[in-house]
Amino acid sequence: MAQQNMIDHLRSELHKNIAQKDDKKPQELKKKPCVGVYARMRIKQLEEQVKRLEEDLRRRCPDSISNLIRAMEPSESDQAKSAEYEERVKSLEEEITSLKTESEHRVNAIQKEHQVLELDYKGQIASLKLELKKMKMSTDKVSTRRGKAGSNSRESTYKKPELPFSRGSRRRDLCSREKNVPPGRLVSKQEAGEVDASGRKQKKDMLEAATQTDECIERFMELKDAIKNQAKEMQTIEKLHLDADIALKNAQMEINDLRCQCKTGEQNFAEREKSHKEALAELNFDNISKEKDLVKLE
């Protein structure tokens, strides 16, 4: 009891010194700087003395109620660990939410871009297909005209020049006239020039059609390559999305592990509290039995 009274007296003195230190004005502190240093030293000495007296009490009376209450309280290391775990769980949850929102925004933007590019490529492919059809039709027409001109020149006989009704008929007539000329007769310069001009024009049309078809094929192949590249990009994006999902799952598992550790810590604390309560109950029972024995002896 004397030690407890001494501890209380020292604590009250410590509180008084702290209050006096807080109530001092800056001017007084400037005038008397040594008083503040002495007060701090005195506070440290009193705190050390209080700690020593508390340790002596614990050693002398380990089964006292105050010591049992102190033992029931969680240690500083457990409190620091629980606070650290809680902060880590909060930071991981915030990181998971930010990663989820970022990945969702990224995937939505990429999907929109892919849809726009797909529609654009489809339109370009359709237009190129139409151009290819037109080129094929034009080349087929030119080839049919050429075949008809050759067959007519072989089958027909020499006739007098007549006024043509169209370019094809005029050219066929000229070719037939050129081939069916008798050996003794010469072709006129006008007829020969017309035949050469028609042949050159036909060759030019064929070359233009061939170049246009080649250009269409090149554009079609470029579009195919672009679509393939876009598909590869989508595959890489899907892979990144899967990696992000795996990272999120791992973070969630880590959070669950931390929560399990916190639960086990709480369970251990509850078990310790229960054991301390049982010890207190046993001490109370022993005290009551001792008191009864004393009463009987009296």
UniProtKB/TrEMBL annotation:
Q: Which UniProt keywords apply?
A: Cilium biogenesis/degradation, Coiled coil, Cytoplasm, Cytoskeleton, Microtubule
Q: Where the protein is mainly located, per its record?
A: cytoplasm
Gene Ontology cellular component list? axonemal microtubule; centriole
> Does the record bear Cytoplasm in its keywords?
yes
Coiled-coil spans in chain: 36-102, 220-268
Q: Where is this region: Disordered?
A: 1-31, 136-205
Determine if Coiled coil is one of this entry's keywords.
Answer: yes
TM regions (residue ranges): none
Kindly list the places in or outside the cell where this protein is found, as annotated in its UniProt entry: Cytoplasm, Cytoskeleton, Microtubule organizing center, Centrosome, Centriole
Note the PANTHER family from the entry: CENTROSOMAL PROTEIN OF 162 KDA (PTHR34031:SF1)
Q: State the protein's name.
A: Centrosomal protein of 162 kDa
Tell me which species this is from: Leptocylindrus danicus
